[in-house]
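> example.struct
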């Protein structure tokens, strides 16, 4: 299936969105397809983050511009061996995506670090750039090891979904419980460390509040597992100086909640984000008050 501009227009009209979103969704799935076809004897690639919640688990109804992955070692290795495995894996991923006909990856744009690597992917754009969209796809691979078992899920672009097409790919997706745990930690430290005057300030951190609310049924069905995973995710984040908070797990979560309740700008930022990125029907749309109440209820259940 190719990108049909006429169908893109029909989908955009049906969902009430800009065609640029449908176009970016298409290229996101093409990247996912390539990554799902990548093989490594040493590492299993697991799709994670908000995009896996929407495209894989179908638990949220919003666009996400990031493609995040966890890289699980298939066997225990020494430090030097693991370093070699990471480098070999990184080079093979970059090589595979660099050869894609519809995507462009510049080696100079790759950020390499000990526990992750990331890069932007550019794609042909037939539509005028939307203010809520970045001009590329942000792709990141983390070597932080998953806590819970992943699940294989079918991946469909909006194009395939609306035309009754087959899934373009099948890929392992991180457990939604673990993604929720990561989002609780991410929301907490990002709110507490936020500086709106910084040139790197990111108002879209409010996406984590939205997604946590959508995940509440799954969280409540496995709350003890979620709580343990959330604590573990928080401890991993606290190892990074830029993410360290002055309190422990409970105190940090409570202070983040208090900040969200007191700082009225978050409500405006939330509304702006959801208006731009959500494609849910009005009855399924998650407003700020509902999301904040859900977060408050979660914090009250934490032991």
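> example.seq
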């Amino acid at each position: 299936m190719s990108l049909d501009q006429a169908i893109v227009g029909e989908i955009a009209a049906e969902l009430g969105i800009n065609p640029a979103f449908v176009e970016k969704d298409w290229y996101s799935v093409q990247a996912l397809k390539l990554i799902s076809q990548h093989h490594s004897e040493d590492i299993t690639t697991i799709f994670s983050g908000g995009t896996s919640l929407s495209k894989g688990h179908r638990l949220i109804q919003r666009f996400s511009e990031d493609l995040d992955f966890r890289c699980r070692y298939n066997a225990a290795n020494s430090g030097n061996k693991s370093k070699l495995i990471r480098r070999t894996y990184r080079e093979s991923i970059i090589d595979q995506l660099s050869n894609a006909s519809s995507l462009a990856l510049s080696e100079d744009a790759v950020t390499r670090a000990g526990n992750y690597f990331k890069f932007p992917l550019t794609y042909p754009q037939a539509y005028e750039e939307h203010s809520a969209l970045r001009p590329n796809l942000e792709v990141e691979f983390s070597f932080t090891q998953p806590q819970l078992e992943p699940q294989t899920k079918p991946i469909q672009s909006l194009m395939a979904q609306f035309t009754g097409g087959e899934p373009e790919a099948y890929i392992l997706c991180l457990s939604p419980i673990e993604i929720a745990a990561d989002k609780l930690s991410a929301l907490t430290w990002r709110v507490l460390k936020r500086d709106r005057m910084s040139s790197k300030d990111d108002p879209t951190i409010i996406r984590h509040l939205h997604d946590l609310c959508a995940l509440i049924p799954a969280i409540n069905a496995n709350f003890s597992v979620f709580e343990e995973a959330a604590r573990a995710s928080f401890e991993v984040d606290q190892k990074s100086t830029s993410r360290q908070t002055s309190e422990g797990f409970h105190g940090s979560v409570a202070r983040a909640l208090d900040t969200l309740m007191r700082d009225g700008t978050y409500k405006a930022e939330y509304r702006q984000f959801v208006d731009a990125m959500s494609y849910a029907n009005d009855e399924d749309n998650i407003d700020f008050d509902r999301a904040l109440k859900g977060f408050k209820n979660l914090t009250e259940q934490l032991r």
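> remarks
The domain at 5-174 is CATH 3.30.460.10 (Beta Polymerase; domain 2).
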